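Case 324 in the screening queue. Each case pairs one protein sequence with one candidate compound; here the compound is zinc ion. For every case the pipeline is the same: read the inputs, emit a complex structure as tokens, and attach any notable structural observations.

Predict complex for case 324.
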Amino acid sequence: MLVPADLATLPKAEIHVHLEGAVRPATLEEFSAREGVRMSRGFTDLNSFIETYMMTTRVMIRPGDYTRVVREYAEGAARAGVRYAELEMTPALGPRTLESVFLEAAEAASQERDVVLRLVLGLGRMMPAEVMHQAFDATRDVPGLIALGLGGPEQGFPAEPFAEVFAEAKRRGLRSAPHAGENAGPESIREALDALQADRIQHGVRAVEDPALVAELAERRIPLAVCPTSNVRLGVVRSLEEHPLRRLWDAGVSVSVNTDDPGFFDCDLLGEYAIAGRLLDLDRAGYAQLARNSVDGSFAPEEMKGDLRAAIADWENDGAEIEA
Ligand code: ADE
Ligand code: ZN
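Case 324 output:
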């Protein structure tokens, strides 16, 4: 299996990563010791993972915590060649207001020079829609907020109740990027497209169970922000070998690879590219196409997308030796 020696300099976008899930384990340990909270890491599926994940919000509660986490994410991302990233945030409503936490993260994001960072408000499926609408209202003036997300378990928690808040977000110029097709099937993706006017689907891998839906995603150029290691860790697929990435790619769907919650899944973006390289049998042009898909699937302004595509073409044409 061949991985380009200069994979880290391939310009990329990361478009599916949760800030609270990206906290470095050592940093999270420090926060939880400070707050006297014991973090459990024993998850086996999406439901048990969400419980663990939500515990992070009980310890990331002090002013400066989000600044640090944004900075640490940016440091690692820049080293992996990420030039643009969209960070989904799901802060708890605790001692600080949602707006103040978002403003802190936005300020930290704006300080980064090597990577352009934008924010996504991640709504929770398990939460009442009215509460999520209030969360949206509280954050809508945050600079750098570009999209609305929807996470949490799909089974038993339909997207439809959130149709109104997503419609309102669209009216205000935000994009729609819900999770769907992770622990529920194609009907959940269909619901995200119809009820939430999804511009992009986070995961979406279970689209493969419905060939007509796969054809539609390809035809409408609806990007899927896929996270292979996450899918194995949360039991969405049994193994990487059984991952449907190849079937989606071969069907012409715009798939990118991303880390989801790297602080918990022991993965990083270069590793996800290497996994894709193996599953998709990529050569140098293939890796460049995968990076282009990440740019196409992003909500970056057209001018930035153009610059990134040009930088990817330069990397592709550089023709550095591919080595084992
Ligand atoms: N929140 C954080 N990670 C998630 C995932 N993989 N699916 C749904 N919600 C999430
Ligand atoms: Zn996710």
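Case 324 observations:
- Residues 18, 21, 46, 53, 151-152, 179, 182, 230, 260-261 surround adenine (ligand 1) (CB under 6 Å).
- Residues 231 and 237 are 6 Å apart (CA to CA).
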